[in-house]
Amino acid sequence: MSAPNGAVSVVVVLLCLVGIQARKDNDLYCGACRALVDELSWAVENVDPKKTIQVGSFRINPDGSQTIAEVPYARSETHMLELMDHVCENMADYGQTEQGPGSRKSFVRISGRTGEKLDLTNVTISSETTKMLKFACESIVEEHEDDVIALFVHDAENITDKFCSSKTGLLSLTLVFPLHVVCQSDSHSLKLPSLFMAQFSLT
């Protein structure tokens, strides 16, 4: 027996709302991941390349020697751990940008690192955005700290793609919203996004 039109409409509404929320969450975490990598990259690039740190074992070998090496401080595990302790605080320097209703949202810096003026057209600045972005950043760090540190320590290329896509999968989720359709019931009609589709990358 077919379901009443009203029940069908309710189901469609719920599906659409779930899809919209999933899209919003994905935009948030994707933006937080990109911002996280960008902040770390900037911090690493601004360390004196001549600065080094000793790494290795400080234990004395049987022959009286020590297995110690000097590596650039910028990409050392010690420096990366120091950065990870406070990098998410920098999310306060970001605002949300969205081109219009239904468009994908992204996050951009609202203050220049060296005092330069930035174009803040269509950028929304709010404490709520800062709070959500910081929470997303902290969640990513808590779960994937070792992964992102390893990429920086080994001087990997395209860290944003490798970390935010391959390691965390945050950039592999794509939500597709085609043209709007009108969902009709006996008493009213609802204009909603048509069926949404989530595509997951398995790579």
Descriptive notes:
This protein is of the alpha+beta class. The protein has one domain. The chain is 42% helix and 23% strand. It has helices at 5-45, 77-84, 127-153, 159-167; strands at residues 52-60, 66-72, 94-98, 105-109, 123-124, 173-176, 180-184, 189-193, 197-200. The strands form four sheets. It has a three-stranded antiparallel beta sheet, covered by helices on one side. It has a two-stranded antiparallel sheet with strand order 1-2. The longest helix has 41 residues, at 5-45. The radius of gyration is 23 Å and the shape is elongated. The model is unreliable at 10-24 and 172-203 (pLDDT under 50).
Q: Provide the domain count.
A: 1
Total beta-strand segments: 9
**Unreliable stretches covering 5 or more consecutive residues:** 10-24, 172-203
The helical percent reads: 40-55%
On the 0-100 scale, what is the average pLDDT? 75
What does the overall shape look like?
A: elongated
SSE topology string: HEEHEEEHHEEEE
As laid out across the biggest beta sheet, the strand order is 4-3-5
Strand content: 15-25%
Structural class: alpha+beta
Q: Main β-sheet: number of strands, strand sense, barrel status?
A: 3 strands, antiparallel
Radius of gyration using CA atoms only: 23 Å
Task: List the total number of helices.
Answer: 4
Q: How far do the termini sit from each other?
A: 42 Å
Any chance you could write out the topology, listing elements then pairs?
Blueprint: H1 5-45, E1 52-60, E2 66-72, H2 77-84, E3 94-98, E4 105-109, E5 123-124, H3 127-153, H4 159-167, E6 173-176, E7 180-184, E8 189-193, E9 197-200
Antiparallel strand pairs: 1-2, 3-4, 3-5, 6-9, 7-8
Helix pairs in contact: 1-3, 1-4, 2-3, 3-4
